[in-house]
Amino acid sequence: MTAQVSVSAVFDSGNIEVVDAASPDNIRLRVRDDAGGEHRQWFHFRVSGARGVPLTLHIDNASQCSYPGGWPDYRVCMSDDHVAWRRVADTRYDGTRLTIRLTPENDLVWLAYFEPYSWERHQALIGRCAASPLAGVERLGASVEGRDIDCVRIGTGAAPVWIIARQHPGESMAEWLAEGLLETLLGDSAAAVAVRRHATVHVVPNMNPDGSVRGHLRCNAAGANLNREWLAPMPGRSPEVLCVQQAMRASGVGFFLDVHGDETIPHVFIDGAGMVPGYGETNIRREKQFCDTLDRISPRFQQTHGYHPERFGEEMLSLASKWVAYVHGCVSMTLEMPFKDHNDDPQPETGWNGERSKLLGADIVTALAEWLG
User: Fold this and answer.
1) CATH no., domain 119-372
2) DSSP H/E element including 286
3) Over the stretch 249-276, which tens digit does the pLDDT of each residue have?
4) Given a cut of 50, is residue 1 above it in pLDDT?
5) CA distances from 315 to 27, 231, 260, 318 (A)
6) Tell me: the pLDDT tens digits for 5-18?
7) Which of 109, 218, 227, 250 has its CA 20 to 30 A from that of 334?
C-alpha cells in the first residue's frame, strides 16, 4: 500500500497553506501571513508519505512575500530527522513562484526557510544557563500571549552590556547566535573570563516568542514589528519591548547589540548608529574599533557589504539600536546574518546555518573581551 503524500505545518513555528497537494509533482502552497497581514516569508512544514517519490513543490505567493529580492540564489533548508539540516540544490525562483524539487529518502521530510530554533530548545538553553553558577536568569516580563521574556545575566564587571536577539521571529539564526554566545560566556576561555570580569552581560535570546511559535517572519501576536516599536511601545501591542526597556533603564547600557538576519545580502555585517543625532565622535570611533576587532578575529565577518547609512528615515529612532544609541548614549549596533549562503566562505551543502551562527556568537565574545579590555 502506497502512503498518500500530505503536507502539514501544525507544529512549533510551522507555517504553510496548502492550495493543492493531490499530485506529488505539482504541490501548490502559500506562505501564511503574520498576524496583522503585513508580512510573510517564513515557512516551515513537513511532507509525509514521500519516500522515493519525486516531489515538485511550488510556493505560489513567493513574489508577494515581504522580501522577494531574497529568493534569487536562495536554497531551501531540508531535514530528514528535524535535527540535521542541509540545502535543497534544486530551488528556483521564476519571478512569481519558488519551486522546490527533491526526492525524499525517508517517509518524512521537513522544509524551512532557515534552520528552525524551537521554543523547546529555547527552554533547554535557559535551563542550562539557570543551572550554571556563573549565570542568573530573570523573567523581565511576558509577551502578548503570556510567554516569558527571559534575560540571562553573566559577569560582575562594571560595564553594562546588552545583547538581544530574534525581535523578528523568522530570523532564527539570531537565537542560534545567542546560544553560541551564551555557551562561550559560560565557558573557561580567556575571553569569557575577561568579559565576565569587565562587564555584566544581559542577553535576551528571544525577544518575540509568540511570533516564533506562530511561524511569523517579523511580527508578534498583535501584528507589531518589534523593531519598529522602540520609540513608543504600548502594553497591549509591544509589551516585549516595554519590559526590556525598563530593565535597561535599571541597569544602564554601555554597549548594545541587536542580532538579526537579512533576506537579501549574503554576508555578515554590522549596521551602526553613526547617523543618530548626538552619537558623537567617541562612539563612532569605539564602534569602528569593535568592528575592526571582530573583522580581524572572525572569518565570518566583513565590513565591505551592508546597508546604506541613510537607509532609515523618520522611522530611525523606532529601531532598537538607534533608540538605545539616542537614549543611552552608548555604542549601539545591529548585526545581520544571511538567510542564503555566506559569500565570503560559500558552503553550498549547508549555506549559512545554525552552527555557523553559533561560531559567530563565540567570535563576538572574543571581540568583546578585547574591546572591553
Assistant:
1) 3.40.630.10
2) helix 280-297
3) 999 999 999 999 999 999 999 999 999 9
4) no
5) 40, 9, 18, 5
6) 999 999 999 999 99
7) 250
Could you tell me which of 170, 144, 226, 204 has the C-alpha nearest to residue 13?
A: 170
State the Cα–Cα distance between residues 244 and 10, nearest whole angstrom.
30
Q: For 6-112, which CATH class?
A: mainly beta
Q: What is the pLDDT of residue 358?
A: 98
Per-residue b/e over 310-322, b at no fewer than 16 CB within 10 Å?
eebeeebbbbbbb
Q: Which of 183, 336, 355, 370 is the catalytic position? A: 336
Supply the Cα-derived Rg of the chain in whole angstroms.
20
pLDDT at residue 23 greater than cutoff 50: yes
**Residue 310 in this model has a pLDDT that exceeds 80:** no
Domain range annotation of the chain: 6-112, 119-372
How far, CA to CA in Å, does 101 sit from each of 54, 115, 144, 195?
Answer: 7, 18, 38, 47
Q: Where do we find the cell 509591544? A: 238
Is 336 among the catalytic positions?
yes
